[in-house]
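I am still getting used to backbone structure tokens and would like to learn alongside you. To get us started, please write out a protein record for me. Start from the sequence, derive the backbone structure tokens from it, and show both lines together. Once you have written the record down, we can walk along the chain together:
***
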Amino acid sequence: MLDWKTDPHVKALMAQPNWHKTLRKTIVVLSNDDPDYTAIHEKWSTTICDGILDLLKSLPTTNNRVNSIAVFHMGYNITKPTDSPKTVYVAVDYDTPEEEFPGVLDKMQEYLDGFGLGLVAFIEHGETWGGLID
């Protein structure tokens, strides 16, 4: 039996309290009440989504591994999910190396920041939903 006190190969994981909160992926589309709704809606299919997809295709880590791209509120606000950040959600194949996600997220966030709409990048392993990506 391994003993974490004497065996240098035993590692302990210190969990952050917020890792245990429920993450609400509100698939409720941004509402007309959102001050950025019109700008996001107008730019989503012609600029934002296509730009993110082009960026992901240009990276070896995510090229041909993107399953879904969507925008919605996602976060920890259980009582009012629409107060959670406006999130550009990307689901990629399960064989996509997770250790590469931080670099991908940095590039996605840099692109999204250029729109000045307060969009937040998010990536995880996931299935296709809401339509296929070509």
User: Anything to note?
Assistant: Helices lie at 37-58, 101-113. The chain is about 25% helix and 20% strand.
